[in-house]
Amino acid sequence: MKSVRARCGRELLRLLGQGSLPPLLNYISSIPPKKLVSPLIRSFYKPDGVERWLAIRVFGKVVAAISSREMEQARVIMRRLMWSLNDESGGIGWGAPEAMAEAMAQNGALAKEYARILLSYVAEDGNFLEYLPLRRGALWGLYRLAEARPEIFREIEAWKILKKYLSDADAESRALAILALSYSGRKELCDDMANNLSDRREVTLFLSDGFKKTSVADAAVLALHFLSCEER
Fold first, then answer.
1. What is the per-residue pLDDT for 174?
2. Quick one: which of 226, 169, 175 has its CA closest to 204?
3. How far is it between the farthest Cα atoms of the chain?
4. I need a surface site. Which of 4, 54, 93, 222 has the fewest CB within 10 A?
5. CA dihedral defined by 212, 102, 107, 125, rounded to 10 degrees?
6. Cβ atoms of 133 and 166 closer than 8 Å
7. pTM for this prediction
8. What domains can be seen in the chain, in order of their start residue?
9. How confident is the model at residue 46 (pLDDT cuts 50, 70, 90)?
10. CB contact set of 107 (below 8 Å; sequence gap of 6+)
11. By C-alpha distance, which of 214, 179, 217 is closest to 198?
């Protein structure tokens, strides 16, 4: 059993190294999903390149496949990610917020159960992640949730917490909050978005079409359009 799991892990790493999603999706369709969870989580600890993000994308599909048959097992996996973000775990939890979000993007039932927990990681009165790279991961996760499940993003009223990030000192955090809030439907945010049009700081984000170099101002332009601010 261990040798089979080890082979799966090696092949998964090889395919991740190729940097292409289709071969990965073809491979995981032939492997029992549970065998892929641990090697994928280990891949979150790779440098912040395409391999790591592909692992996160594939992880979401794997957990969605598990949840379709064994919802409680999917919950166990989500709790494993949550534990990795706990100070008592002794770890750092690299990629955990992003992976949670990708699983929620792929499965609506998981999104309903865990969206508020994801939001709590950026709330100062919640499970606030002090370490900036992890907090950026949670903000990316909220963007991904908003993109894939806008109705749930609105239901949890994420805008009330994310609004403060529209003036965050960190450019990446600000850009991610802007992109997430573009799905909020809250026209009262239009002035805050407009205030970011002069912020030309560049950031590189992993979006639906891969890595993209953009700026805070460019994100604000997109949000102003999505929120139909010109119609106020």
1. 98
2. 175
3. 62
4. 4
5. -110
6. no
7. 0.94
8. 1-156 (no CATH), 161-232 (1.25.10)
9. confident
10. 63, 64, 67, 68, 74
11. 217
